[in-house]
Write a structure and sequence with these properties.
alpha/beta; 29% helix; UDP-N-acetylmuramoyl-L-alanine:D-glutamate ligase; four-stranded mixed sheet; single chain
């Protein structure tokens, strides 16, 4: 299957090092760098996971590089510091959006980290251009998302949107709320996940979204898609860094 991902992307950088003492001038850890790993993040990580599942994916994303740099204690995998560079990006060119041949794709995924690449009108246009669209957004939801097929948000985003979702049953009935080790909620029902030793949750939401879309495009069954997405997430949280399935 072939998918299209549209949204903000970044470069995820992990700088691992040895931590053995605190700085004498402040109660902060001193890290001695040992190694560095980097990979595409945000919308780029969604693409990585779709490809890891054996499918093809195109991406339309920002040209300027957003960078998330994490400093990690290599012994315990503890995150010590995160630095976000160039945290905003230029908006998508409207001509680029209108020139997309949406019929070439089995589904379209909007991975909107709200860094400036997509507007609400852009997302509404995308949802009206393909019969199967998925949305993961940091924006406050509204009628502009009514034609999205399924929406994925986390518990923090749900609190932001709770009143809107309770008042708009059309949005609520298509929204999946991920809750970390408590599984996810969909239409007032909780879907538990397997308990595992968690190393890193970075990028887990991207993995869930990728698994959800791939399985739903195959089966057209949202319940098996949720189960598959949670299985995928269970795999990656047991790995260090932003990992793929």
């Amino acid at each position: 299957m072939n998918f299209l991902v549209i949204g903000d992307s970044c470069l995820d950088v992990f700088r691992y090092g040895k931590v053995e003492r605190l700085a004498p001038e402040a109660p902060i850890p001193i890290i001695t760098p040992e190694r560095e790993e980097s990979n595409p993040g945000m919308a780029g990580n969604v693409v990585r996971n779709i490809k890891a599942l054996g499918h093809t994916a195109d991406i339309i994303t920002n040209l300027n590089e957003i960078k998330k740099i994490r400093y990690v204690c290599s012994k315990y995998n503890h995150l010590l510091l995160r630095i976000d560079e160039n945290d905003k990006c230029k908006p998508i060119n409207h001509t680029t959006l209108t020139n997309i041949i949406f019929s070439n794709y089995d589904a379209v995924i909007v991975s909107d980290y709200d860094k400036g690449f997509l507007t609400e009108d852009n997302i509404n246009f995308i949802s009206n251009s393909h019969p199967l669209t998925f949305l993961d957004t940091k924006k406050k939801l509204g009628n502009w998302a009514n034609n999205i097929s399924y929406i994925k948000i986390n518990t923090v985003e749900y609190k932001l949107n709770q009143n809107i979702l309770l008042q708009n049953s059309k949005l609520f009935n298509k929204t999946i709320i991920t809750k970390g080790n408590k599984g996810c909620d969909y239409q007032h029902k909780n879907y538990p996940t397997q308990e595992v030793a968690v190393k890193d949750v970075s990028g887990a939401g991207d993995t869930f979204l990728s698994g959800l879309v791939v399985e739903y495009a195959r089966s057209r069954n949202i319940f098996s898609a949720i189960d598959f997405a949670q299985d995928c997430t269970t795999i990656v949280v047991q790995k260090s860094g932003v990992s793929t399935i």
